[in-house]
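seq:
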Amino acid sequence: MAVTGSGGPSAQDGQEPGTVYVAVDDGAGVHVQRLDLDGEPSEICSRSAERTLRLLLDGMRGQP
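struct:
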């Protein structure tokens, strides 16, 4: 499981705030999602964590 990106309030490494990548390796493969989120940095971080955990749970349940 990995998360990287720009939570804001300003761009980071050329990525606009709210641009986040989440990835999970469930043993059968690596699943990566790009998220384009709006909001305050704390909201972006919370929603990124939620999406990452959802991706992990979906992988454990055998869902794409």
